[in-house]
Specification:
By secondary structure, this protein is an alpha+beta fold. It has two domains: 200 residues, Multidrug efflux transporter AcrB transmembrane domain (Multidrug efflux transporter AcrB transmembrane fold), CATH 1.20.1640; 169 residues, no CATH class. Helices cover 75% and strands 7% of the residues. A four-stranded antiparallel beta sheet has the order 2-3-1-4. The chain is flat, with a radius of gyration of 29 Å.
Length: 381
């Protein structure tokens, strides 16, 4: 059965309105997105259990047992997902550990500069070089003292976990080992205490535990945002190089951006958290979107057989078949991840699945129509 060629429709601008409406809905729904612990920081625990317990009851028991505020409890297939705020002592210690590594980086830089100045001074003993060497040695000593101070602050923050430090070494490597081992030991103790407390409240057979500090979560979010922005910039210039015109480039970027907005809206609607895994799904979605958008633009603008409307229709038949195959594949993965509840697969498959569904409307109602209008305008000129 051959479907009618929609591109013979006189008012193509009405077709373009469909992906624009989807974009608006996506923007509105995306405000409901929740960051998972990989981006906002905190502790995420997924326990596999057959026990039935009220989420509000479990939240109250966790608050009393672990002395944490506002734990988030969510049912997952075959188990329960528990999200806890990061332990404040660990969060403070993490900040001091970052300060320690910053001071150590400065120490290494100053030490290299001091060594170079010392060699230069041995060859040319001028007052200016001596003054620079003395200033650099002062910086070396100051950064070493800052490392020692950060270590002591970190250890003080970790006292609730029984972490202590008796080293008075001036060796930066010894100080680094003490700083890292102290934080690692405290994190392991907190994990063991948390799992033991949960096991006393809800019997479970297996669990997964993930802890991310707020600092690391902010860093991940910043880097992932920059990655997506750079990807769009590169896409624009690559398409601009191919077609030598900004219009096809903007249309292709619009298609990829709209697919991401639709996927974000679906994440907000179906409560798929935004994390490192789901951002990976968004990057995969960009690749799928560019594939169909470039297929459409090249066939309409570069091919010569038939009319532009016929070429657009032929592209749609090919592209929809490609996208449908991918939808089936990620649909199966999404279903499997729901049954077995594998969070990484759940986030990736959910993002790509809903983004591909949106891509059908974006590419074949929006992008193809825009390219056709651009082609007709060029022919009139």
């Amino acid at each position: 059965m051959r479907l009618p060629n929609i591109y013979h429709y006189k008012n193509l601008k009405l077709l373009i309105a469909v992906p624009l409406i989807l974009m608006l809905l996506g923007v509105l729904l995306s405000t409901q997105i929740v960051l998972d612990t990989s981006l906002r920081g905190g502790v995420s625990i997924i326990i596999q259990t057959n026990s039935t317990i009220s989420p509000s009851t479990l939240a109250g028991e966790i608050t009393s047992s672990l002395h944490v505020q506002a734990p988030e409890i969510a049912a997952s297939p075959g188990g329960i997902q528990i999200t806890l705020p990061i332990n404040q002592s660990l969060a403070n210690a993490d900040g001091y550990l970052i300060q320690f590594y910053a001071a150590k980086s400065n120490y290494s830089t100053y030490l290299v500069n001091a060594t170079s100045l010392s060699i230069a001074y041995q060859q040319n003993r001028t007052p200016a070089l001596l003054q620079q060497l003395q200033a650099m040695n002062a910086n070396v000593n100051a950064s070493l003292r800052q490392m020692q101070a950060s270590l002591q602050q970190e250890i003080a923050a970790l006292q609730p976990f029984g972490i202590s430090n008796s080293t008075s070494s001036n060796d930066p490597n010894v100080l680094q080992q003490a700083a890292q081992s102290g934080y690692s030991s405290a994190s392991a103790k907190y994990q063991n205490q948390t799992i033991a407390a949960l096991h006393s409240l809800v019997p479970f057979t297996s669990y997964s535990y993930q802890q991310v500090t707020p600092t690391l979560g902010q860093f991940f979010l910043s880097e992932l945002t920059n990655t997506i922005i750079i990807a769009f910039i590169l896409i624009f210039f690559v398409v601009l190089f191919i077609f030598r015109s900004p219009v096809p480039s903007l249309v292709v970027v619009f298609g990829a951006a709209n697919d991401i907005v639709v996927a974000l809206g679906a994440m907000g609607l179906f409560k798929i958290p935004l994390g490192v895994a789901s951002v990976a799904g968004l990057l995969m979605l960009i690749g799928y979107s560019i594939d169909t958008d470039m297929l459409t633009a090249i066939r309409i603008l570069r091919r010569g057989e038939g009319t532009p409307e016929d070429r657009a229709y032929s592209s749609m038949r090919t592209g929809v078949t490609m996208t449908a195959t991918a939808i089936v594949s990620f649909g199966v993965l999404f279903a499997v991840s729901l049954i077995a509840y594998v969070p990484t697969y759940y986030e990736i498959a959910g993002v790509v699945l809903f983004g591909l569904i949106g891509d059908i409307f974006t590419t074949w109602l929006g992008n193809a129509s825009m390219i056709l209008l651009y082609k007709k305008r060029k022919e009139r000129i």
